[in-house]
Each structure stands twice: as C-alpha cells, then as structure tokens.
Amino acid sequence: AVTILLCGIFMFLWARDLFGERAALVSAVAYMAAPYVLVDALIRGNSPESLALPLFPFLLWVGRRWVLHGSVKSFVAGAVGLAFLSISHNISTFLFAPTLAVYLGALALVSGRGSGIGKRLFRLVALLALGLGMAFFYTGGALLEMDQVTLEMSTTTRNNDWRYNFASPGEILAPVVAEDPTLVNPPLLFRLGWMPLLLAALGLTGLAWIKGSDARSREQRLHLWLMALGAAVFLFMALPASQRVWHTLPLIDFVQFPWRFVGRAALPVAFLAGVPLYWFEHRRPTAGGHWPALITAVAIALLIIEAIPNLYPRICPEEPFPTILTVHNYERITGLVGVDPEGSYFPRTVRERPTGSPLEADYAAGRAPQRFDESSLPPGATIAAVDYSPLGVTLTLDTPTPFAARYEVAVRWGATPLRLALVAFSVLSAAGVVVVALRAGRRPRAGGDRKQTRHRRPGRDEMLALVVLGLGLLALKTYVDRHETFLRRAGVPPVRQAVALQGDVLRLEGFNLSRASVPAGGTFDIDMAWTAVAPPPVDYQSEISLVGPDGLTWSQKGTERPRVYEDAAPTRQWLPGEWGWDSREVRVLSGAPPGQYDIMVTLFDKATLAPVTLVDPATGQTIGPSAVIGQIEVVNPTTAPIFEPQYPAEADFPSLGLRLLGYNQDRAEAAPGDPVLLTLFWECRDTAACTDVALSLRDGNGTSVHDWRLPVIRDGFPATDWPAHGRLRGQHVVQLPAGLESDRYRFFLEEYP
C-alpha cells in the first residue's frame, strides 16, 4: 500500500511542475491505479519491484529540477534515489537508467534558457555517475563476479526464459473484467487499462493546442513527444516483434520477462493521462466554474472504478510463526534448497547440488546442531563430552585404543581485493556527491526552482468535488465488497466447448482452444475449467494428450503451463463451488500426419499418480481413467520438419518412392508377445507409391521369424495428404510372436536392417 501511494505522490510532484495541479492529480491516480502497479504489489507480491516503481517518477522529477535549474536538494535526492533503486531492484536499474539518461539528455539539449548546454550535460553525467557509483559496491560485484556463480541457470527454465514471456497486443489492450471470488487462479494479464489509454490519447492532442515559442511551452511539447516515444519503445519491447533486439542486447536475458515493459509503459501513459485537464488552465488560466472540477472528478472516478477488480488478491495461507523447521520442510517438498529454483546462486565450484542439510535431524529433535561429524571417529570411539562454541568445538572422547589426532579448520571472514575496490569506489562516489552539492550550492541560481513551486491552489469547488468523490468511491468499494456488481461477482466459467465429465469431486465444465487447427510440430493451448463440487480429499492433476485415429499418442509427453495462467492452489485447499483454470500447452509431434485428432484428458492423484475414474455426471455412467473431450485438426506445416530420430538413417527405397530418415524404438528388450512401438521417419518422393512397406523380425542368423506388411503412415491414408516437402512420421505397434526364443533379434525394413 505504501509503494502504491508513493507512486501517486511522486507522479503528482513530477507532473505538477509541467502541467499544474489538476493534471498532476489525474496523472497520479492513473499511475497508482495502473494494472501493472496493482498486480505487482497485490498479486505477484514482488516487493523489490514494487519499491522500484515509485522511484521512477521520483527520479524523473528531481532529475529534471537538477539538470534544468541546478537544485542542490534535487541532486542529492536524485543521487541517493538512484543508489537506492540499484540496491532495491537491479533489473529495474538496468531498464530505467538508460531511460533516465535519454530523458535528462533531451531536456539538457532542448530545454533551458539560452546557453548552458555544457553545464546541463555535466549535471546529467554527475547525477548518473555518482548515483550509480554509490551503489557499485553492490551492483559491481554482481556484474564483475557473475562468472563465479551459475547465474545463467536463472534463465534456463521456461518460466524464466524471455522467449516464452512476451505479451500480446490483445493482452495489453484487454479490458478489465469483473473479479470472480470463486475463481482460484485468475489469468495474470498485464494490461494498460482503457481509461489511462483514452486519457493519454487525448493528452497527445496537446501537441496541437499547446503553442507558443516560450521555454515552458517548448518543454511541455517536448515532454509529450518523449512520453509518446517512451510508451512506444516500451510496448515494442514487450511484444514478440522485438525478439531480434532481445537476441542482440547484452545481459538482457536477466530481465527474464518482456512483459515487464508493459509496467514501464504505464509511467508515460499515466503522465499523458493528466494532460487533457491542463486544457482548462492553458486556454483560460483564470477560469472558474464547476466544469473543470467536475471533469477532473469524473476522470479520477473512472480511473479508480476500472481498477477496483484488481484490488482482490487471493490470500495465501502462511504459518504465523515460521521456524527453521518450516524452511526445511518447504525445501524438502519443493526441492528448492536455499529457496533457489534453479541453483543459480551456487558457486561454480559446487559439483553436486545439496538436497538437504545433515543438521535437519538435530533441529527436528530440538537439540543444538551437532556440527561435528561423528562418522569420522575411529572404530569404537564415543563422545564423552562436547562443547560447541560459535566458531569451534571441543570434544572429550572415550576410545578402546589410544590415538592422536588434531584437526584445525580456520575460517576467515574478509573482503576480497575486488570487493574492497568496489567499496572504495562507492565511498568516493558518495564523497563526489558531497563535493558537487557544496560547489553547486555556492553558485547563484536564476530562481528556476522558486518559479517551479508557484502552483495554482485548488478552488473550493475542486476541494468539495474531491471530498465528495472520495466518500463516494469509498462507499462504492464497501458496497462492491458485500454485493455482486459488474465489478465483482461470481461467474460461470467462460468456456466455449462445454463438457459433461467428473472425476471424484472435480467436475470439468468445459474448455477453450487457442486455435481450431495446428500444424504438425506446433503447439496449441487448451484451457480447462474444473469446479469442486465437494471438498477435495487429495491434490489432483490432469494430463492432456493427442490421440490419432490409430489410437496412438501424437503429442509430446508432458505439457507446459502457458504464461497467462498461473498454477492453481492445491485442490485440497479448494472450497465447494470454487473453480480454477487448468491450462496446458500441447505440442504436436513433428511430422504428424494431417487429420482430426482426439483430445484426451486424464485426471490423477498428484501424490500417488493413481488415475481417477471419470464418469458422466448426468447419467453416472463410468467412462474410464481417460476420456475424449474434443477434437482438433492437425495440418501439414509449410516448411519441412527437421527430425531428430533416436537412430538416424539414410536409406532409399526407389521402388517405394521412399527415403528413410531414421527411426525410434521404445525399448531395447522385450518378452515374447510384448508390443513394441516403432516410429519411422519418412520422406516421400512419389506419393502414388508411398503406400506400404515390409517389416520383418530376424534372428542372429538372419532368418526371418515374423513378417508384417505395414502402411507407411496408417491404414487408409490418402496420397493427397502428403505435404509438398514429403516428410511425415509413421507410428506402428507390432506384436512380437509369443513363441520367440531368447536371442538378439533385428527389425528389417524391406532389406534395410
């Protein structure tokens, strides 16, 4: 709550210097109510980034005052704020420092009175260099010692890989929907909001009606251009169109999430949102009446009303008084030793990642940790007494035979030469701030700051309108908390394909598909909606597979979670009537033949992996452990797939118009009568001839013990369905003869082994 409030305060101070209090008030509310600001603080719980978000307008405010007017207080505040930003969230520093440099550089070159460009540029360099330098004892170590830890592991998982975390235009421009209190995992969308965008678009019209050649008008127009450019650049970086830039820029991998730039775009959008209210002051500076106050109140009300659905985060239950045992239990359940998902903070010298601590048993027993390894004692030796000190241990031993041993492990805590140099650099930077502030304080200024602080005070009508507005919004929020409205109400899962299916106490309401057809090798998303009809006794999980007309699976094993949908809470925490999205990204096998495929769901106990029997809730009829819930069409891709077979091959069959590119075999050993799955990767050069192929099983002497005639792809596959590039895969389950003797056998295609 404090960081959200600070977002508004600092945005107000910055915008007020340019466009007055009325516009600044609307900009402040727009930034506080920005969906990204609320989601970051209330949904994601990202405290470091939430602390960084209000520092952006703060640094822009004090940076402008320092560069243009030489305000010493602004310089000191800016340097300290920049150092604080570096320590609080270094990713934000990486993104915002160039933004601040461009903003202040443009002001130094274009704004200001007369000459003095060199002086303004010096102020810019001093602020950035000294502000970042004061935190270099912290950020410098992270940069210069990066190769000593496995930090690159932080971007190896799909969740943290920027390639899977772009936003879409539809997501950014999506309307805010009503909050559903029965939905356990609302989609995590990063929007800009319709009202801020509408007001920002109106604000850009200021380029037409803010005229004049005076310094203030020029600076106002410059800000409009800078904000429009900043919003465009930030949104571009959030979209897949910027992939080439992401591949090129160094260190940007560690930003991890391109959708972060939607939050950065919220800043210039909020700034522009207040500009339309400046029209009243610009056109009629002394105008009174009720209209300015009324329009300001309406703009603020609409901004806040649109933000209300984002004010209801799910409450995560936590232990009120966690102990070290709580940490150990969490590490054991999740496997996150040190609460580090990928081990990215481990030194490179760590060869084997620890799975726990040998001291856990001592903590669990409530005794002092036994830091001495008793297994190192000679046979028969026992510990008669032990005395642990903070940095040592003294043991009294009883041994059947005398022995002499002395072990001394010395641990020295100190700083490396590099760290000492970084600390010295930060100290020198702090001293530089003092020197620059003292020298700047002795020089007379042109009174720019004094002029900046003269603002029109709100009239009685405006104050009354704001008071009435505040009381009205508080009453509205109280009403929304207790009643169903268009802002917050329990809803029916919005599924386009309804399904009648239930597994134990979970009912599948239906699903949505991201596409009606998918190319072989491509992916599609399926978003299933499950409702708890009674308290679930265990944690359930589902699995989706794609099944062809031959009954075989044509999708990769395992599915991924699409970015927009968060993992739901364990089903044991669901209450009756609550529902959640179960979204999966399914990848079709490359080279899968075109046609209609069944989408099959399996529900199982997450702890035991035991499947749950699925039934039709309307009739009570048992369906089985898996059920078909829909279909999707697989089409040929326009480009030839690049196969990666288990056993690559290069074998031509001219009479069949085929070329074998490789094959997979699901097992190396089998018992007589067992089924064996063979996958054959083909390139067809004559579609009329690519129909079937002979397969034989031969013993060690080369004698055939069984023969099959297999379709190249599957029975009844039309020759017209072969793609232009000719590459498909065929899957075949062959049953080994029941009377096979123990031996080493080989499969032959025609005469190819």
Helix content: 25-40%
Give me the Rg, rounded. Answer: 34 Å
Strand order of the largest sheet: 8-6-4-3-10-11
Q: The biggest beta sheet, please?
A: 6 strands, antiparallel
By secondary-structure content and strand pairing, the structural class works out as: alpha+beta
End-to-end distance = 70 Å
Strand proportion, as a percent range, falls in 15-25%
Poorly predicted regions: 446-453
Q: What is the molecular shape?
A: globular
Please, how many helices? 21
Total beta strands: 19
Q: What is the total domain count?
A: 4
Word description of this protein:
The chain is an alpha+beta fold and 753 residues long. The protein has four domains: 313 residues, no CATH class; 79 residues, no CATH class; 139 residues, Immunoglobulin-like; 103 residues, Immunoglobulin-like (Sandwich), CATH 2.60.40. A six-stranded antiparallel beta sheet has the order 8-6-4-3-10-11, with no helix packed on it. It has a four-stranded mixed beta sheet with strand order 5-12-9-7, with no helix packed on it. Strands 13-14-15-18 form a four-stranded antiparallel beta sheet, with no helix packed on it. Strand 16 and strand 17 form a beta hairpin. The radius of gyration is 34 Å and the shape is globular. The termini are far apart. About 1% of the residues have low confidence.
Brief descriptors of the model:
753 residues, alpha+beta, Immunoglobulin-like, six-stranded antiparallel sheet, four-stranded mixed sheet, 21 helices, globular
